[in-house]
TrEMBL record:
Residues 128-257 form the Mandelate racemase/muconate lactonizing enzyme C-terminal domain. This is Mandelate racemase/muconate lactonizing protein. GO terms for molecular function: magnesium ion binding; mannonate dehydratase activity. SMART domains: MR_MLE. It comes from the Bacteria.
Amino acid sequence: MKIIAARLIVCSPDRNFVTLKIETDEGIYGLGDATLNGRELAVAAYLEEHVIPCLIGRDPSRIEDTWQYLYRGAYWRRGPVTMCAIAAVDVALWDIKGKALGTPVYNLLGGKSRDGVLVYAHANGSNIEEAVDSVQKHVEMGYLAVRAQSGVPNVASSYGVPKAGKSYEPAERGLPSESLWSTERYLNFAPKLFERLRSEVGEDLHLLHDVHHRLTPIEAARLGKELEPFHLFWLEDPTPAENPDAFRLIREHTLIPIATGEVFNSFWDAHDLIRNQWIDYLRLTIVHGGGITALKKTADFAAVYQVRTGFHGATDLSPITMAAALHFNLAIHNFGIQEHMCHTALTDEVFPHSYSFDAGYMSVTDAPGLGVDIDEELAARYPYQRAYLPIARKLDGTLTDW
Ligand code: CS2
Ligand code: MG
């Protein structure tokens, strides 16, 4: 089998997606997600100008060799754009291999280790009342795990809370919006949110919370300690993770489980955090971390230290990544949980897929490969529109982590 063509499908059915389609001389094609929220065309250009020319004529079954060729052959290593591009090729090749062998990708990763993939939903509200109501709505929908985010009193816009009447989509078309943030107000508020949530939903529901990189290590330690009575499933991105030592400091002060890594793009970003057991869940995911090949190596390393996966799964990761993640999550032993932020009906129409949600878990069918496709004609009706993630500033105007 030979690769005879590879091309990008860039579309924006509600938000931007970049999809790589690799075609072979036996009529089988594979799909890979190449979406990097807010920097989509950088990855598209990297693939178009520097990767696709090298793919033509290659044997698509040589997945590991192709991964090494694209990683080591670039000379300049790592980074979100490079690893997202490599991921798109890698996932498309796993899709092709599954289709060529007539088997779902999870079977190529060791077969099922579980019958379904535990997922968590996004609940949010502009205040505690709305957040409680949203969590309860997701419990009624069958979720066993729910992330709760709330507006903070006297803070204009908090992370994870949609604008009035809209579903939550952080990327905004046009130039980046700017919002004001107050750590002090947030730190005084967050424990009240979870005290109320626990009293409303009881002990069994897994509650998660995303700090979104906004605290210093000692502030994160304070928050972790104050949230301990409400036994969260995890506290996510408590502090920026460029300095892994920051997580040592948090670990010294609190038992709250820690998750981080959605902004990582390589095993090496997580290496110290894993081997020192400074985190409990790794969020590094397939589309941003170099693909299935890279994540398998990383997850296997994490398993040795009893660190589990908790893949990022926001709407800016396409249904192709969701499908790949579900196959991966079904197979590996040290699976933790999968984020499930539902795509819109239109996005699901552009990307028909075989995965489904039921009673707190997601599963895939035994369709060969990943079990996902792209409706190119429909995608073409929704052309790319530049969009950015927001910028955050402290009340005094200092730029801070959004
Ligand atoms: C968030 C994301 O889902 C999450 O945990 O951190 O919504 C993140 O803000 C976006 O994926 C950024 O593109
Ligand atoms: Mg997050």
